[in-house]
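Input record (one chain):
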Amino acid sequence: MSKNHFKIIRAGINTTFQDQGRNNLYHIGIPFSGAMDNRNYLLSNKLAGNESESPALEFAYQGPLLKYHGDKINIVVTGDVNFNIKKKKDLINGQCYQSYILENDDELDIISTNKSVYGYIAFGGKLDLRYQWSSCSINTKANIGSNNGRKLEDNQEIKISHINKNLSNKKLNYVNTKLENIRIIKGTNFNYFSEKGKKIFLEQEFNVSKLSDRMGMRLEGKKIENVVDTNIKSEGLIKGVIQVPADGKPIIMLSDHGTIGGYPKIGVVISADYDKLVQLPTGSKIKFKEVDLASAESLFKLYELETQNLISQI
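The corresponding structure, as predicted from the sequence alone:
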């Protein structure tokens, strides 16, 4: 048994290790994977005193209950999350974007996300994990990554091979915001759809279906009519691309998406809005807004600048 480790009392609904994913493997069918909400992932590591690409725990809806054994260690929770820390007889109502020091036998209980999906736990140190293709990110559909490509389970241990020496408390005043519209650029098959179908796509609201996970987000709403062909020759997909199968209901490809697909592509969610998109829980309403490529590039530069400004405040 490792001297410094967390015992998983309750694993939560979908708890995995994630970092910034895998590059340059699309040609062999391996997507990037990595943290769904990249900004919250980066902020968790910075607040914990880690390198920016260090693995963190990503959880969805209900997170894990962890009991710590070992020397003092910093932990940070980011996202919009309700959690508690139990220290002997004291129960602390945890605050996101603030580091806490855990001692031997303390417990961290991630109760739930708050009107969102994903949250992150960064541990102030180095985790003892197996890397695959320079990443520990878990893709449960392909059984790739650390933990044999599987989500974490009850009674497992999270081993800490090294604890950061600096245990000073850090805090960031940050509030997660939501977008009124998810901005998109036209997809390569935009003109496969009728004028009425295009109007529905750009003007009507859609609901996030319960059939959504790290691989894709299925939407419910009025049918988007295809007037050319409901199938195309399979071709490459990217994160955020919106496919429309024969039933006329859009599917947005997310971080663990397949790398090729044969459904026509009506649009692509811009990179600047991806973090906000993935945090929309089942039943949320989505409305799309078209922007041009130049605007999408400018918005992404602004998103990156805002993220770096937040990191510099820590």
